[in-house]
Structures are given as structure tokens and as C-alpha cells.
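User: Show me a protein chain along with its predicted structure.
Assistant: Here is one chain, sequence first, then C-alpha cells.
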Amino acid sequence: MHNHLKPVNTSLNLQVIIGLILCCLIVLSVQSIAGAKIVFDYNASIYVMNDNGSGIRRLTGSQFWEGRPHWSPDGSQIAFERNLEKDIQKYQLFIMNADGTDQQQLTHNGDGDRNGDPTWSPDGRYLAFKSNRNSKRSNIFVMELESRAVKQLTGIEEESSSTSPDWSPDGKEILYKKHILRGGGIADTNIWVMSADGTNQRPLLPDQDPGPQLSFRVYPRWSSDGQRILFLKSIGGLQGDFPIKRFVVMRPNGAKKEIDVNEKMGGEWVGSGLCWMDHGQAFLFSAGLLEVPREKQYHDIYRYEITTGKLRRLTRHRYHDIRPHWVEGALAVSPQGKLPTQWGEMKAIYGIETSAENEKYTSP
């Protein structure tokens, strides 16, 4: 009795192995993309990246300026603004899927109008935003996304300017920045809060007393549990210098903690965006150092850990990375549309410089 060994189909086995390897690579690629939870604007386009600064992907790439992105509560969509003219202001609101597809225009105002600073209601049905459609000054409006109906909330009874809305997690209130006019074109800014229907407008903190110094309180942001409010405070002279900058974490009862990052930043800086992340354990901000030559004053995105005081720089590009926004939970991001723009492509297109020092910020 003879044992007959069947010949091994090495070609088929090799195909199976290659197929398994490709499946693993696809899964890893999708997982990497799905981990992109930070959206920001860079060089007039919208990008996303992972929490550690890796996995940068480009979502938009029109001929117009695009910026001020904001995640929907479930991470499936992004609201942003786009200027539809190159030589005049014609900023309109748009929304798109998390992968950059299905871009929809929400507002259709005329030349000289600006709609921006979008923020979603917790149920995803409304957008609060700033607009100067009824005045020379910007004020807060709310749009119902299904009907596109718009309602003005601030600036109805007085001529003022209000921007930077942020919806409370329970949907009952909206934080915003209000300009407090001193006269002569000079204004402080303070953090105000109102009911979601525009009633009960009031300052979160007392307005700055007129004096030799200006006070700017900007980028108000609710924490995800609604128990803290984050903003940036800058104090300086009437000549435009603001050497005092502090991040402020405030409780509803008025208790405050001020965070000074000047020493960690390595010099005086100017901010250009702020948001919570990691379920209130950290925050992101974008900033540029002032003590470098003007042509190299690029803004980058930083991550600050509240409990440890650790500051980590996430980006280092030859242009401005600004206005970051972080989303909680899983994202519906897929490798479609313009997402495959890789780090190497960004270097080639925009002349981004990298170094060994930068790698420690963008690697896990």
C-alpha cells in the first residue's frame, strides 16, 4: 500500500497569504483614519489628525479659503465656513461628512457678509453661529438644519458685537464672546452666557473696568459634563501689547484656576483657538511665538494636560495650524474623497519642514 502525497499548490497558498496581509493593512489603515479626532484648518483648508498629531489627512481643497471647523456631536459631520469670493468677504456656512464628502452650503448671504464660528447643539439639530447679515457688527444666530430657518439671538436691543458661541452639553445655554465698547473704537471682550432661545443674556464675569489696560477673554468652551468653562484671558496696554496670558478653568460657582504656559512655550505668544479634549482631562490650543522673526511666526497646535501640567506640541508646519476642535467617541471616517493626503504629500505640496525634534511630537 503506497502513500501518495498530493502536490502543494504553492501559487494558491501565496495568494492566500498576500490576501491576508492586504486585509490586515486595510484594517490598520481604517483604524488609523477612524482615530482622527482633531479637526483644524491649515493653509486655508480643513484637516484632521490623531490625538498625538499623527495621521494628518486633508478633507477639503477648493480654490477658496476654508476654516473654523467644528465636529457634530456624534462625529459624523463637520461644520465650517468658506469664503466664496477671493477679493471680497462672502463667507458662508457649510457642512460635510467626516471624510470630506457631501459638502452642503447652508447660508446664501450677499457680498460683504460673513457667517462663521459654527457650533452644534447637543442633539445635532441646530447650529449656532456668528453673522453680520443684519448689521455692520457680528452677532449670534441659530439655524435649524432641517428647515434652514434662522433666528437672531444677540444684538437685537443694542448695537453690540458677539461671536464665538458654544452650546452647553444639556442644550439649555450658549456661551459667547461679547465686545464691550469703551468709545473711540476701543473695546474689551468678555464671556457672556444666555439661554438657548436668546433670553437671559448676562456676563459670566464682571466686565473690565475702563482703565489703562485692555482685557480680552476669548474662546469660551463648555466641558463635556457642563461643570467647567474654559477660556483664554489676555491683559495688556492700549498699544496692543498683551504680555499677560492665562488659560482659565472656571466652575459654575465662580471658582477659577488660572494656567500659565508662558515658560513652557519659551516666550511671549498669541493664541488662535482653544477647545477641551480627553473628556476634560486636557485641552488643545493653537498659538504662535512672538519672539521669532515675523516671517517664521507660524501657529502650531499644542496639547496641555491639566492634571500633570505637561505641554506637548502636536504640529510643526511652515504655515498656521489653527482653531483645533476635538470630538469624543467613535467617528464615521472612511478613506474616501481627499482623506488619503499623506504626511509626505503635505511636505511636497506645502514645503513643510520636518526634523528629528518634530518626530517626538507626532509619534506615539
